[in-house]
Amino acid sequence: MSNQQLASKIMTSLTVIDSERITRNEINEDERGRIANAAVYAGSWLPRVMIDDRASLGVGQIHGLLQRAVRRHGCHVAIIDYLQLIDGDGDGSYESMTNISKSCKKAARSSGIRLIELSQLKRRDGAEGNPQMSDLRESGQIEADGDVILLLGREPSSQMLNVNVAKNKIGPIGIIQLPFNLITQRIGNNLYQ
Question: Which residues contact 44 (CB under 8 A, 6 or more apart)?
Answer without folding.
Answer: none
